[in-house]
From TrEMBL:
Biological source species: Clostridium oceanicum
UniProt keyword Glycoprotein present: no
Entry keyword annotation includes Iron-sulfur: yes
Gene3D superfamilies, per the entry: 3.40.50.11890, 3.40.50.11900
Name of this chain's protein: 2-hydroxyacyl-CoA dehydratase
Keywords: Iron, Iron-sulfur, Metal-binding
Length: 333
């Protein structure tokens, strides 16, 4: 089976039905010990220093890992993806385009998914059969998530890593299913570790993965990972078909749609505060203006760039913010 790279979460059911192995280039890039090499490859080929490190990392990961075909999301994700796709095409990479329509109408989502199925020469029955199989695994993601916020047995980092991996099921959904089942059984035997401050993480998954470990040293923990949870499609089993599943996916559509679900999670998970992570030079950073106005909860915006470790300034800001939230919680109690 041939590998096909993904620039973000897309209807992976179509790709698997077409007998390809999905490979999320984001996960290859950010989890690699040599992640800076991927950025260097892009900058040597002319990508500017002022461009988002993720885009450069995707480019380097694609070339370095000899990925010959990719799915490029042309609408509903990063505004720089179109440029990335054009450069990769010039390097001989075959591109399969996909779009999450800005209109966010179910009929328009259906049109885009039908186009995607036609590109891969698969039909709705084939795709739905794969979807039913994957949804059995997605149930485990919900269980893992509950063990995070409901029983305090899963760390924020574990929650992040396992949910973000649902974008491509680590290239082998059967193995992924078995490994996750085993992991959950072990987690259930743990004792709960309850921290003073319950945090939510919103925004794109971080370059700086050490943020999870750092906040735990401050007697706090992330019990909600917004976008990572969306990658695992927590509402997939309620969807009638693949069209409604991807219609109800919050990440690529308007911010109002995202905020409705974030507010539900704030209440359900009893969050004390939110960390909003944005990437340097990313248009999504502007979302913070709206999020700060609309979410009635303390919120701190931090920004990542090329480094995969928190810098001293960000650590100080996190420490001061969490300390403040802890004091507010004491006053309320």
């Amino acid at each position: 089976m041939e590998k096909i790279g993904l620039t973000t979460t897309v209807p992976v059911e179509v790709i698997i039905a077409a007998s390809y192995i999905p490979v999320d280039l984001n996960n290859i890039f950010v989890m690699s010990k040599d992640y800076k090499e991927y950025i260097d490859i892009a900058e040597r080929d002319g990508f500017p220093k002022s461009m988002c490190a993720w885009i450069k990392g995707l480019y380097g990961a694609c070339l370095k890992n000899n990925i010959k075909k990719i799915v490029g999301v042309m609408e509903g994700d990063c505004s720089n993806t179109k440029v990335l796709i054009e450069v990769l095409k010039s390097k001989g990479i075959e591109v399969y385009p996909f779009s999450f329509p800005h209109t966010h109408k179910e009929e328009d989502v259906k049109i885009e998914i039908d186009k995607f199925m036609n590109l891969f020469k698969v039909n709705l029955n084939q795709v739905e059969n794969v979807r039913k199989r994957l949804n059995k695994i997605r149930i485990l993601a919900k269980e893992l998530d509950y063990l995070t916020y409901g029983e305090s047995k899963v760390t924020g980092f574990e929650n992040h890593v396992h949910q973000v991996s649902f974008s491509d099921f680590n290239g082998d959904f059967n193995k992924f299913h078995n490994d996750l089942k085993d992991k959950i059984e072990k987690i259930k035997k743990r004792k709960s570790v309850i921290k003073k401050v319950r945090l939510g993480y919103i925004g794109v998954p971080p370059m700086t993965g050490d943020i999870y470990e750092f906040v735990e040293k401050l007697d706090s923990s992330f019990v909600y990972n917004e976008v990572q949870r969306e990658f695992a499609f927590p509402r997939a089993n309620e969807a009638l078909d693949i069209y409604s599943q991807y219609y109800n996916y919050t990440y690529p559509y308007d911010i109002d749609f995202r905020i409705k679900d974030i507010k539900r999670q704030i209440k359900e998970r009893k969050l004390d505060a939110i960390i909003h992570y944005t990437q340097a030079f990313c248009h999504r950073a502007v979302d913070h203006i709206i999020l700060k106005e609309r979410l009635n909860i303390p919120i701190l915006n931090i920004e990542g760039d090329k480094n995969n470790r928190l810098d001293a300034r960000t650590k100080l800001r996190l420490e001061a913010f969490i300390d403040m939230v802890g004091d507010l919680k004491k006053v309320k109690n």
